[in-house]
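General statements about sequence and structure are easier to judge against a single worked case. For one protein, we set the task of working out the structure tokens from the amino acid sequence alone. This step matters because it turns folding into a mapping between discrete strings. The amino acid sequence and the backbone structure tokens for this protein are reproduced below.
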Amino acid sequence: MAQSKENTNNSARSKAAAAAQSTGAPVAQTGEKRPRTTRRPYYNRRPRRPQQPREAAVPIHIYPLGGLGEVGKNMTVYECNGDMIIVDCGLVFPDSDMYGVDMVIPDFTFVVQNKDKIKGLLITHGHEDHIGSIPYLLQKLDLPIYGTRLTCGLIRNKLEEFGLAGKTKFVEITPRQKIKLGCFTIEPIHVNHSIPDAVAFAIDSPAGTIIQTGDFKIDYTPLACGVTDLSTLAEYGQRGVLALLSDSTNSERPGFTATEQKVAAGVRNLFARARNKRIIIATFASNIYRVQQIIDLAVEDGRKVAFSGRSMVNNTAMAQELGYMHIPEGTLISVDELNQYPPEQVVLITTGSQGEPLSALSRMASCSHRQVRVGPGDFIIISANPIPGNEKSVTKIVNGLLLLGAEVIYESMYDVHVSGHACQEEQKLMLTLTRPKYFLPVHGEYKQLKKHALTAASLGIPTSNILIAENGSNVILSQDEIKLGEPVTAGAVMVDGLGVGDVGNVVLRDRKHLSEDGLVIIVATVDSKTGKVLAGPDLVSRGFVYVRENESLMDGAQSIVENALDRCVDEHVRDWNSVKTRVREALSSYIYRRTKRSPMILPILMEV
């Protein structure tokens, strides 16, 4: 058997050799080792082909100037190849310890320093935390504004108050309409929110594609405008998304956000419950969906509708003009006409759902509204949840309305409000569709950003590719890495009346001091040559003690001041600043010993 196999192999080898000779091909050596050839000397070897250096990946810089570690003040700057764009420019309401402050806006120092690089300002939607700071930015530099039709309308209303509407270039955009700004190509993507015409942005650059969601939720039964454009988001995910910046406001809430349809059913039940009472509903002036729902229910119930609050009147008029709101003829009346109708025939839609001190609802609660007097015949619905930090203000208004005898529905008592922000399952869907390489949670306090980061990690995104940044961070992204560069100027600028940035920590500290301990003013007339007191000293107390009930304290204080002035004369102290300092220290020490309080002391010395 073995011999037959060997014969077969020999015959195969001979056939192969014959075939090779006929074709001129070399004979393959089978079963035998090839003789080893001599290696070339190193000086005869061919030089190796030089290695081409790997080209570095193009980076993109992301500078969050607001919206991280806080709810509101959203503003993000992108930079790539020397071009910059800005997404959103919002404000945040002041905290309770920001005495006298009307609003807080981002610090625009970095933007102003780079104004020649900026190609445009893109806005995701028309809520105050995304558009509220635009007038203050445009006072520093001119920028074209890119936004959807309703968003541009809301911004125009705001700019008209500042005289900037005619000077600003508006570019109306629509979903899936791409915009070219420098090296950036931006595609708006329709998303659901509590306001129409909200969009996310797919920002394409030489470094890759970044998706910034803006505020969003996924509502399968929206009131208008259709469902969030999940197919476009999925298309980007298939092509490759470098990074996702996603709304974190509801990251601590499991499940899905309720649909706006739920509010209509809840408010309809409350209309039936109100019966013969006048209905007053407070909501956000920019929540066009909610206002339209209320108008529709009022028409069903045979009631007239009136608006109160400047922003409510302006926004609804603009929404009607642009076709986003429809009010049947004969339904709308002015607030001055309310008292001409029986209570059961009217609905008043007003501002003040966040407890703003100057809002229409706040003035009703304090009985200072010129046209509306609240009483037992009123049924009041606050159709909003308090923004973090506004809880005390809202509670104060609710208490005031209840004391006036009104019935008040607020917060989660009934289905009168649903969030416009995605809960955990919607956030997971966004992450799964876009499949980003890197993830940056945005729009939320740190605990919300952290929870969103954990959700992303649970879906398989490496923790090394997840970054919780801060306002002022310089996030550098490329296909190779994510890292932090040198931070940029960012912070909070307080707006107090017409003053922007006039109020700082020192002023706030003084206001806090005044609010807690009050003020004592010392007034005296002195001889400019000798320093002797010619009249006074007189002490005036404001916010410290009631003088008539504390005469012994104030008499003692006056003696302390007199003695301090006399000592200055005896010691020949002629520097009036030194005199004031001595008087202030002596009186402060006396008052603290007697009361354990430290009022602000203001010496006024008039020289003659």
